[in-house]
Amino acid sequence: MRYLPLSAENREDMLARIGVAAIDDLFADAPRDALLTSPLDLPSRKSELEVERRLSALAGKNVAAGAVPFFVGAGAYKHHVPATVDHLIQRSEFLTSYTPYQPEISQGTLQVLFEFQTQVANLTGMEVANASMYDGSTGAAEAILMAHRVTRRRKALVSGGLHPHYAATARTLSDMAEDEIRILPPDPLASEDLIGALDDSLSCVVVQSPDVFGNPRDLRPLAEACRAKGVLLIAVVTEALALGLIESPGAMGADIVVGEGQSIGNGLNFGGPYLGLFAAREKYLRQMPGRLCGQTVDADGRRGFVLTLSTREQHIRREKATSNICTNSGLCALAFSIHLSLLGETGLKQLALINHANAVALADALEKVPGVKVLNRAFFNEFTLQVQGSAADLVERMAARGVLAGVPVSRLLPGAGLDDLLLVASSEVNTDEDRAVLLDALQAEMRA
Amino acid sequence: MNREGRPTQPQVATPHMPKTFTGNRALQVAEALIFETGRNDFTGVDLDPPAPFTPRLGGLERKSAIGLPGLSEPEAMRHYVRLSQKNYAIDLGPYPLGSCTMKHNPRLNEKMARLPGFADIHPLQPVSTVQGALELMEELAGWLLKLTNMQAVALSPKAGAHGEMCGMMAIKAAISARGEAATRKVVLAPESAHGTNPATAAALGFSVRVVPAGPDGLVHPDAVAAALGPDVAAIMLTNPNTCGLFERDIVEIARLVHAAGAYFYCDGANFNAIVGKVRPGDLGVDAMHINLHKTFSTPHGGGGPGSGPVVLSSRLAAFAPVPFLKREGERLTLVENAEGTEAFGRMTAFHGQMGMFVRALAYILSHGADGLAKASEDAVLAANYVRVSLGDVMSAPFGDKICMHEALFDDRWLKDTGITTLDFAKAMIDEGFHPMTIYFPLVVHGAMLIEPTESESLVSLTLFIATLRDLVFSALRGETERFLGAPHYAPRKRLDETAAARKPVLRWTPPQPVKA
Ligand SMILES: Cc1ncc(COP(=O)(O)O)c(C=O)c1O
């Protein structure tokens, strides 16, 4: 087996040194009748070539986003990632190292984390950010728990604009933790009255902006109302690129910001691995989940970085920890950080502007198609389209025409009576031709 | 001298190390923060501005500056390559972190995960366009079920701790379905358990009752029996345990737990020791997470990402969270909404760590059933080889008991040397090794947990052992300078963690202008 360096002779010598006759003597504590004495009835080893053939065949059955006009979003976005990013994250020293528990030989990872935390804090307009969560949805669920600890209240209010899968993730954790959670009805027009729903029994209110229907939300009035009632405002961002163009949640008064960072530096990957961004006001630092990297000095007085404030974490605090998270999304954070350091502020804003321009062009064109209607007054790079009939059926028929047109709202919210709504995203990867193909196919379908 | 008069042999040995202008040491080059070298008005990505258009942002345009430096591509390349050179890695040498399983990461797996048909597909595109991806998930699930002899698998958990959360939620759902949610509020766990176990239980509103282990490092049935009662929901037991031992009485423990109406959660972080040798389903386990980033070698990436699928017994299978796969003849679909099912809910926005599924399946197919068992055997063999080769000079808490994939030592042998486990670990760094896991498990004083994995050759193991023996003798001879100031040769000397925690600096801020 190509990954195993020991030879048969090595194994014999080692067994002799250990003082046992056979390998199974080392498994003597396993129950006798549970120890397998022959290989399971499963395929045996394969060469590299065979594995490549098998997996390439499976990959070949999927329609890759880059192969078709592609307008699918709803929490995961197709963007161009510079080649440098994927090269660098495959450096052995980044790819094949563990969590930086020995800081003297992990300064590479640690400095990256320090830079990442700074980038995330600046981007979200917050004071501190952690070294990553699994993804945006688990980050949002953990933010609610954090708010409960900070306020010593145990009831969350969730906007109807939060991605339904985020809401379901949060509901599961809240129900299981026996906390209260109230999720408002789906809100395609961003017309819900969150301020009216506030009361001082709430620990937090969770609002996504742009929301799942694409509407950017002005958080300022809500932030003010929250402050008056001692309620924390948790802002969720599922398209991190939007922060290049839209006012940061921190500047609008959020107390905790969680985000999905996939858009920057990371591919679609069918939903994972992704990157949870988590930032907060410094006064809540000790209640934050996840790892934190901090600056310090070494014995010679030189600047260096270490994991810090680990008395919040499971390996020190056990059942009193702020979260059970251990492994996080380190390498995805590296990819994010590299891409963002290539973009810089100028590039990020430009890229965000291009996304918005493409989405505006698409919305303008779609509004001229008979039988469809753009619901949003405002949006960033994704909006809601009202079509005639079932959006899910339309998407299937469009796929048959070679266009991936978006996400039917019914896939996220079955039974909500929103079957005619379609979420359509457009980014820098969409060409004028992509747009033309989408429009043609849609016009053909609407006529049919 | 060659003909041009160029010296071709070193001439004088330098008596001392001269200072350098930069402070650098040849390949060890200092690297500033991007915030110190980058410029906010510079970008390393060429983007043309869009044609003029009327924005539709609803008046929420960003007004303030962000504070994000940009780097040209050559600057970025150099920044990250230099940083990478300050890291240790499996690809550089042994990384024997006990419990973490730092085995070789095959590059075939990276290549496969980057096929556009896997890397460039969206979790919400029509299922008709991702049949290959769903097939891959089904195939991986099939392997996991057969290797564990369990009933169902939830693929979506994002890492081991998330898998624990998933398994314990399934248990809580099952207990609620029996109408016992209000009474069964206790989870049993041994003191040696990983911190994620009590943290998970507590997050779900359980209180943790500690089960003591015996002097042999094992949990004994009578201790479990004494701790069980009608208030107990589950036991969380790691097998092989965090001391690197197979829980000999695991079947009897499972029987007692079930007889008391509770469930058996197994922390499967150490499954890599027994793949193809023992199936957890044959031991009475009800739920177990599998760290694909340990057992099936998806790279750790400096802290993540991982993947933590959870296998479930027939007692819990129905409660598995959404999404799950459903086969309808030739076609696979995803059940994404819990309503109308017994699923306890949802763990995350999408379907789990697809990128890790591809890598893990590539690893599994490469090994096959025979190779997987061989990998476990070699891992156990290597750990025992280390154990007997160091057992005469270092103290082992459980004597010369056979271990599984990791060998555990304590610090009794360091008594009166003035050297701690931490000092010993730091001295290993100077020798070119990553230290073992230290101070875990907590039940052993000054623990040193060595997991060599199956990836080390005998030559590599031999050097590792010889080095540790040399360090041991050095410590016993009182050569404290080798330890107390260690590491001497790493990119940094020992770092002040107390200062870091006392006054946390967690982000870069512009230097304050100096007052004249
Ligand atoms: C015994 C044990 N349990 C649980 C975990 C948690 O796994 P993860 O880091 O993937 O969340 C680990 C590893 O860190 C472990 O060693």
Structure description:
The complex is a heterodimer of chains A (448) and B (516). Chain A contains 13 helices and 13 strands. Chain A is of the alpha/beta class and 448 residues long. Chain A folds into two domains: 83-340, Type I PLP-dependent aspartate aminotransferase-like (Major domain) (Aspartate Aminotransferase, domain 2, 3-Layer(aba) Sandwich), CATH 3.40.640.10; 344-447, Aspartate Aminotransferase, domain 1 (Alpha-Beta Complex). In chain A, the strands form three sheets. A seven-stranded mixed sheet of chain A has the order 1-7-6-5-4-2-3, with helices on both faces. In chain A, strand 2 (155-158), helix 7 and strand 3 form a beta-alpha-beta unit. The mean pLDDT of chain A is 97. Chain B is α/β, with parallel strands linked by helices and 516 residues long. Chain B folds into two domains: 109-364, 3-Layer(aba) Sandwich (Aspartate Aminotransferase, domain 2), CATH 3.40.640.10; 370-501, Aspartate Aminotransferase, domain 1, CATH 3.90.1150.10. Chain B has 14 helices and twelve strands. Chain B has helices at 34-37, 73-84, 107-113, 116-119, 131-148, 160-177, 196-203, 221-227, 250-259, 354-390, 421-430, 458-476, 481-484, 497-502; strands spanning 152-154, 186-190, 207-211, 232-238, 263-267, 287-289, 310-312, 324-328, 331-335, 407-409, 437-438, 448-450. Chain B has a seven-stranded mixed sheet with strand order 1-7-6-5-4-2-3, sandwiched between helices. In chain B, strands 10-12-11 form a three-stranded antiparallel sheet. In chain B, strands 8-9 form a two-stranded antiparallel sheet. The radius of gyration of chain B is 27 Å and the shape is globular. At the A-B interface, helix 1, helix 2, helix 3, helix 4 and helix 5 of A face helix 2, helix 3, helix 4, helix 5 and helix 6 of B. Residues 99, 159-161, 194, 196, 238, 242, 267, 269, 291, 306, 308 of chain B line the site of pyridoxal-5'-phosphate.
